[in-house]
Structures are given as C-alpha cells and as structure tokens.
Amino acid sequence: MKSIDQITSLIRSEQDSLEQRFSHFSTVIKSNAGIAAEFVTKKQSPDEAGFNIFQIISNKFFYENFHSDLIASLLDPSGLHGEGNKFLQLFITYLNQHFHIGLSIDDYRDSVVRREKPGKIDISICNPLSKKAIIIENKINNAPDMKRQLPRYFETIAQAGYIPEAIVYLTLDSSKKPDKANWTLGDRRNVDPLLHFAAAYTNNAKDLYNGWLLECQKESTRLDSVTVLRQYTQLIKNLGVDQMDKPFMEKLFNRLSENENDYRTAQSLNLMMQNFPDYLAQRIQDKYNYRSNPFDSVWIFKGNTTVFGDWHYKDSKFAVDVLCSTDSYTIKIFDRNQIDENLEKIVELINGEDHFSFSSLERRYVMVQEIKILDQAEKDLFTQIDYMLGKFKQFDKNEVDET
Question: What is the β-pairing status of strands 123-126 and 364-370?
Fold first, then answer.
C-alpha cells in the first residue's frame, strides 16, 4: 500500500504534467494566432458568389470549357453582348497596362475570336487585316498541359499566316506554370518572350477580375451584359478566394512541421474543440441541475444541447433547448404539444418578441447569442436563463393563485 507521501507526490506529479501540457497548448495557440486571425478574417469576408445563375443551373463552371466559352464570347466583337469592340479593347488595355506588351488597339479592331480554332487553341484572337494574333490558354481549373502545347499553338497561328504577339497563360491564381519538359530550344526562343501569366483572381489590380472583368462591367451599357458580367465576376472571385486558403494552410504546415510535439498538440486542441460544445452544455446542466423549477429536470441531448423540460401549462408541455457550439448559444422555446397560442403567450410573458424569432419550420421561438468573450457569453446566457425561469415561476404561481 502506498503511503500518504507517495500518493501526495503522485498527485503533484500529475498536476505538474497537466500544467506543462496546458502551458504548451498556450504556446502553440499564441504562435499560430496570427495565421488563424488572417484565415478567419478572409473566411468572414462577404466573398461568396451568392445567388449566382452559373452555380445554380450547372456544375460546368468546374470545367475549363465553361470559362473559355464565356471569356471568348465577351472578347468577340460580333458576340451577343452587343457591345462591339468594347470588351476586346479593354482586354488589350489590360494586357498593355499590367504586362507591358505594347499592343495596338487598332491592330485588333473587329478581330475574329474563336474557340478551339485554329488547331486546338483555347481562345484565338486573330485580325485578318493586321495579321496580328493573341493566344489565350485557359487553365483556371488547373487542367494539365499537353505535350508541347504552347509551342504547337505558336506554330499553328504562324502557319495560318498570323504573327503571334502575346500568349496569355490564364490560371486561377498564377501559381501554375506551363510544362516545358518537351520543349526544344527553338520552342523556348519562340514562346518565352511572348508568354504572360495572368491570374483570374488574386485580389490585386493585375488579376483578370480587377484588371478586365470589373472594367467591362463598369463600361457596359446593356443590362443583359452587365448582368452576365456581374454574375461571372462573383463566380471568379468566389473560386479565387477558395483557392487563397492554400497560403494559410502552407504557413500552418510549415509551422507545425518545425516541431513534432507542436503537431501533436494541435491535434489534441482540434479534438478538444470538437468536444468543447458538449462541455459547454454540461456546464449549463451542472449549474441548473437542482434549480430548474418550474421545469421538471435538466438533461443533455445529443451531447451539445441542454434541455429544460418539461413545464406543464394548460394543455401545453413546454421545454427549452440550449444548443451549444464553438461560436454561439442558441435558445429555443417550444411546446411539445404544438399549441401555438400558448407558446405565443409564454414568449410575450418574458418580453421575448424583440429577442426571439419564430421558426415556422420548427414551430419554435429561437434566439442566437454569439460567443465573443467566452466567460462573458456564459454569464449573459445564465442571466437570460435566470430571467426566463423567474418569469415562468412567477407565471406558474399566479396561475395557481387564480385557481
């Protein structure tokens, strides 16, 4: 049998171990706080495509052809947009301004814009008078390069009697580069001086979104053109923002790769945060376990929900759910017997009309309390629960007195 001193020593040792672990947790959290803050800020920005016709009607925006078809239709002076040379001229201006190419707008007036022609070129812009041409290779969705793809396009345009002045390699974020494994020295001499890397969206003036698409949207005079441009720019931005998660994850990867213990600690923190809502619900149950009157009892449902139930009034059986998450508490008041008249009366009793909204789908009154400062959010929640319980008890007493 262990002596008292041995037991005391074991307890102290365990306490020291816990202190060391939580100290390391704190160190890992603080060292990665900057990355996390940047990531959350970006995620919370209003950048989703929203009510977007392209996302609603099809998943084709995942394909290169979708983007090539739409971009080509905008560039085509004879396109259905009805804006003539306007969008093509804005594209030439975009290339000159941000890639310093020095193209002449007059050389491309009334050019022929084609898809998959000549050869298999994604988008070709060829002017039959000036014999000048621009090649656009679209890789927005990261399609792999074919063997000698860009050199073959250069040769195809030249053989058709045109002078290639620019080859635009369009990717989502400019991180992808052409596969030059099979290029000859002559290929490099022909293609490299003409090659320009454009990003669809990187949130700067040089990307296609800011440098060309938004300019087209500003200059368009036709409602249907403006509508299409607005929808497409939203889509491009949304795809680009999703892609921009990578740098944050790269930073995190590099940071956690420095120390194996940091990675294990991060895994532990992730697991703890997954279970944190269950702990928040347990704290609510612990506080009100023996003081839930007029409700019969308090229990946990599905781990993260504290249930106050049930309180009987007339033909109703009321309950209150407190759903816990890592960023909010959600209070739901409902009648298990679904007598809306009684439910409305109870919500009115606690002056809840300004704080609770009625969910017709759930037939419950709902209030969401955002968690910003954790301990203060819990105090505010307990204040709200105490207030409701007090009002319910007072109402219960008045009903008994009246009878």
Answer: unpaired
Do 358 and 293 share a structural domain? yes
**pLDDT confidence of residue 360:** 79
pTM above 0.90, yes or no: no
132: alpha, beta or left, given left = phi > 0 and alpha = psi -120 to 50?
A: beta
Burial class (CB in 10 A: 0-12, 13-18, 19+), 298: buried
Question: 313 lies in a domain?
Answer: yes
Condensed to tens digits (0 to 9), the pLDDT of residues 245-275 reads 666 677 777 777 777 777 777 777 787 888 8
N-term to C-term CA, the chain: 65
Beta carbons of 216 and 74 less than 8 angstroms apart:
yes
H/E/C letters for each residue in 145-193? CCCCHHHHHHHHHHHCCCEEEEEEEEECCCCCCCCCCCCCHHHHHHHHH
Q: Which two tokens stand for residue 123?
A: 């988008």
Give yes or no: residues 157 and 281 share one domain: no
**Whether 226 and 151 share a structural domain:** yes
Residue range(s) defining the domain that contains residue 366: 276-402
Most confident of 116-125, 154-163, 325-334: 154-163
Per-residue tokens: 194: 């003409």
Confidence of residue 284 (pLDDT cuts 50, 70, 90): very high
> Within this chain, do residues 391 and 316 fall inside the same structural domain, yes or no?
yes
Q: Are residues 194 and 292 in the same domain?
A: no
Judge whether 151 and 183 are in contact, CB under 8 Å.
yes
- CA neighbor of 224 nearest in space, from 67, 83, 50: 83
In a domain, 39, yes or no: no
Same domain for 169 and 72, yes or no, is yes
Q: Do residues 197 and 325 share a domain?
A: no
Residues 60 and 158 in one domain: yes
In the chain, the number of structural domains is 2
Mean of pLDDT values over 207-234: 92
The domain that holds 360 is classified in CATH as: 3.30.1460
- The residue length of the chain stands at 403
Q: How confident is the model at residue 56 (pLDDT cuts 50, 70, 90)?
A: very low
CA geometry: angle 137, 138, 143, nearest 5 deg = 110
